[in-house]
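User: Okay, second chain of the day. Same drill as before: sequence in, structure tokens out.
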Amino acid sequence: MGQANAEHIEMMDQLPEDSIATNGSPNCLNSPGTPEMPPFIHPYKLVPFDRFRMAEVGAEEDFSKPPAFPIWRGLPNLLLYAFFFTPFTFAILQQTGMDGKGLDPYDSKRAPSRSAWIVAAIYYTMVSLLCIFLFTVLPDAWYVPRSKWLISLLALLICAIWFQQALTFRYILLSPRLASLKKNRDIKYKLCGNAYSTMNPRNLSNYISITVVLSEFFQFLAVTFHPSVPWLCQGVREEDEAFIVKLQRYLPEALVPTYAFVLDRYLEILLAVLVAFVALYLVLIGRFVQSQAPPSGSLATIISEFMAGTFFTAVVARLLSVANQLSADRRVSRMVATLCLFVYATTAVFVATIRAFGHSRIDLLYLPKWLCVERILKGSVGFFAALLPKPTSSTGEVVCTPILDGPAFQPLDWVNRLGPLLFEGFALTIVLLHLYLLRRWHPTCSVSFVIRVRKALLGIAAWGQACAFLMLLLPWQGWLVLLITTWALAMAVLVSLAVFKVFFSPPNFENEAPNVQQMRLQAERDRIFKKGADRAVQSKKRTSRLSRAVPSFKETCQGQVKVSVPNNPLPPPPPPP
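Assistant: Same drill. Structure tokens below.
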């Protein structure tokens, strides 16, 4: 059926333009001499993006707004698109490998072949059966929470996720449109003071994209104070014990759940919330596909940047943490967690590419190649954080727990330091790799100040992980004080530089955009005109006051001042010698 559909579309492309319906859809033909044909339904309906293509060529219809439809008519198709989007992503990757070049999902003339769909269906069926078998059929000894057997089963699932993510990165490299980013310097908007940017401050979608940078910063801070890192035993003073206990209890919530160690009820509630989040994510994707929404719209931003970007590391870490900490008898819950993890982690990397096809209408856009790599790297940090065990003694009891009435400084042995040491070293390497790629693939964002802020925040996070790494190597009670002090100084310097740059730095006229130059010249003309107008007004007021004051002065002089001439004038001056 897919081959017949492709032949039908190819036949339609050869027809004259006046025979195609004016709504831009190839589903019906209206030629003057032939009767109207019945609507042709695409069997490959996961690429209905002709609406965006027609909008680019200047069609009269408003293609930026999704068509309205009753919920009882659109809901079945929406759920169908949401369900088939996961194998659709692998079919795109498979077709890219077969053709040797990236497949444009917005091109209705090219679609994954039948063999690509078959391979995708087989692959996802095997992964689903693997999750069902591995996490429900084996004996209870394999499902002991945080045991090496359970971690080995989860490692197989992680390898399957990494495999598809690697295929997604290859797909981006084979698509020149996704592997590069051009900044639009023609139009700039005034933010405040002397700051101008290509980002429109009135576009709310831009702020959704900025949340990716902020969430990344807090997630890397959560790595520094992960519950398994023994700050309480090796890096704080006694008077700082209560502070570090609260810090390690609340801050890591940006990455992994800290309250869920043995509580199955809490884990199942958390799993229900995560399943609802993934379901909403897939439903929004189905709505995006069904409504033929443009990639520059707010719906694409919410899917690609917010749900698949801002929450990516936290969601994958929590799903894996739930699967790793559930009791042995919670087999169905563990299976659901692993299936949701696979679906979300694989599609979230792929949807990072959908906004790149509407770059001409987007103010703040990230390089798709960069988005793919940084989500893979941050997802790896989330996997490591979810599988990292807490330090235990020889009897199996958890050590370095917050005991407020005992000594705080109790350095651990090297066996319990090894896991947190590897974790902090791995996270520090990931952050440094982020900084290197931000410089190597410049520009990774269409807005320059977002890149600068991201580098600064990553530098602060890297210093925190370096302090945690040194604390594990060289126990000292002053590490926390040193870290907090240097962080406060760094944030103060960062804010001071931002204020100076915005309000006190001289403007740069070398790379000035034409509209910024026009705005600056217009503001200068307005200032000069206002200054001249003020002078004219002041001069007019002064003249008016003088004109009123002169007559009154003359009248006063005539009525009150009497000129008297002396009777005996002074003698003339003597002659010169």
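Strands lie at 189-192, 195-197.

User: Thanks, on to the next one.
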